[in-house]
């Protein structure tokens, strides 16, 4: 051990070995790979592996596209949706500027949206289908809804770190009914994944459009999906009963943060195992992933129950980030980014105006990366700069799809039932209520 400390080269070898081990473990067990030669060049295959030279991770074929994934963390505090909301607005504005299309929406560039808790509400808003098959809400609409909810929370005397969201989710059926009407998982322009924890089965439950398209037994109304993933937020322990549209499936849900506060790994696994919609996605090298955190709270001295829950949730989210980053390996700088802020300030009683400033402050922070076994590392780029770089990659992928002769990266599956006739009224009423 002392020799290893004295020799810097030995330390590098240990780091390399650790990297190789965790790359193999994450590739095999997290994403379902079972390639006995899934080693970087220069390492030895495991006992019992087929003979032959070890091979590195497969490089993407020329002209082959990438599946674009948006993942949004969730939590129960009022500030939990601020970083994501501001990041989404910044990303959408960058995409519009780069393409010259003022009507562009995030759903035009992402193939899958996943979100938990407040992130699940944002994801559902971005992919909800409106008239003529276009997304019902923009990123600006989603952030406006969140800020208005925070303002109502303070005016209602909610106060505290989770006041705004607690006020919103105290009667989630009312708020989400106004937002989504009778839209269901089938009524989305892109596949959406939203987790919760089912008390009836004692395990996580993942709302998925793929399952909803396959059978009505797993098609839920978006308002119920959002209520389920937000249940128990802000200190409330009450579970929410969610029923499928045909009434055959029932779950007793508490918030998605309990099960999958960071749904990135679930989204990646869904894509890599869903060949009907993503036939060309064979590995993480075929993906473009942006994962947006909820902002990590300021440390406190008191170890209250809520503080312990917060620490546990943030720790699990960081573990998922580390695992995903390890699985991407050398592609992590180009194919995977994590937007996260630390020491997130509380908005305070100045309400929505201060909340908007808090969101911008988090975007201006240097990006925070989770390093396996080494805690946090402050990156050179800010969160806003990372979003700009990723916007460039998204535009490149869209342009490639328009000109490439290769078969489509994504096969769109459309619901068998027509959209509700009340779409036009829903659009006008919803936009009026959130602005």
From TrEMBL:
Signal peptide: none
GO BP annotations, alphabetical order: defense response; lipid catabolic process
Gene Ontology molecular functions: hydrolase activity
Record keywords: Hydrolase, Lipid degradation, Lipid metabolism, Plant defense
Pfam family, one: Patatin
Summary of the function given for this chain in its UniProt record: Possesses non-specific lipolytic acyl hydrolase (LAH) activity. Hydrolyzes phospholipids as well as galactolipids. May play a role in disease resistance. Lipolytic acyl hydrolase (LAH).
Record-given protein name: Patatin
Organism: Panicum virgatum (Blackwell switchgrass)
Lineage, uppermost ranks: Eukaryota, Viridiplantae, Streptophyta, Embryophyta, Tracheophyta
């Amino acid at each position: 051990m002392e020799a290893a400390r004295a020799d810097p080269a030995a330390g590098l070898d240990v780091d390399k070995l650790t990297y190789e081990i965790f790359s193999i473990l994450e590739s095999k067990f997290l994403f379902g790979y079972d390639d006995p030669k899934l080693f970087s060049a220069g390492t030895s295959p495991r006992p019992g592996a087929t003979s032959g030279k070890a091979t590195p991770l497969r490089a993407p074929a020329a002209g082959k596209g990438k599946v674009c994934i948006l993942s949004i963390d969730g939590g129960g505090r009022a500030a939990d949706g601020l970083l994501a909301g501001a990041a989404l607005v910044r990303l959408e504005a960058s995409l519009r500027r780069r393409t010259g299309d003022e009507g562009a929406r995030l759903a035009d560039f992402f193939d899958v949206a996943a979100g938990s808790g407040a992130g699940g509400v944002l994801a559902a808003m971005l992919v909800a289908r409106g008239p003529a098959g276009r997304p019902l809400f923009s990123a600006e609409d989603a952030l406006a809804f969140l800020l208005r909810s925070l303002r109502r929370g303070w005016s209602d005397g909610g106060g505290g770190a989770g006041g705004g969201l607690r006020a919103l989710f105290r009667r989630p059926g009312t708020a989400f009914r106004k937002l989504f009407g009778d839209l269901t998982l089938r009524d989305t322009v892109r596949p959406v994944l939203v987790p919760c924890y089912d008390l009836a089965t004692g395990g996580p439950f993942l709302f998925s459009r793929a399952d909803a398209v396959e059978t009505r037994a797993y098609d839920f109304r978006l308002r119920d999906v959002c209520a389920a993933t937000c249940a128990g937020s802000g200190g409330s322990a009450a579970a929410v009963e969610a029923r499928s549209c045909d009434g055959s499936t029932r779950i007793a849900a508490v918030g998605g943060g309990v099960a999958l506060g960071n749904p990135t790994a679930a989204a990646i696994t869904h894509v890599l195992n869903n060949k009907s919609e993503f036939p060309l996605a064979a590995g993480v090298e075929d993906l473009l992933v942006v994962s947006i955190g909820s902002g990590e709270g300021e440390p406190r001295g008191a170890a209250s129950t809520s503080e312990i829950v917060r620490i546990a949730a943030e720790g699990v989210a960081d573990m998922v980030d580390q695992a995903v980053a390890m699985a991407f390996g050398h592609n992590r700088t180009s194919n995977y980014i994590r937007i996260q802020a630390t020491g997130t300030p509380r908005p305070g009683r100045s309400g929505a105006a201060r909340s908007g400033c808090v969101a911008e402050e988090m975007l201006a922070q240097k990006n925070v990366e989770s390093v396996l076994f080494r805690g946090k590392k402050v990156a050179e780029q800010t969160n806003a700069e990372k979003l700009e770089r990723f916007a460039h990659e998204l535009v490149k992928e869209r342009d490639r799809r328009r000109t490439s002769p290769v078969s489509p990266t994504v096969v769109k599956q459309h619901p068998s039932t027509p959209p509700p006739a009340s779409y036009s009224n829903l659009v006008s009423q919803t936009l009026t209520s959130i602005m």
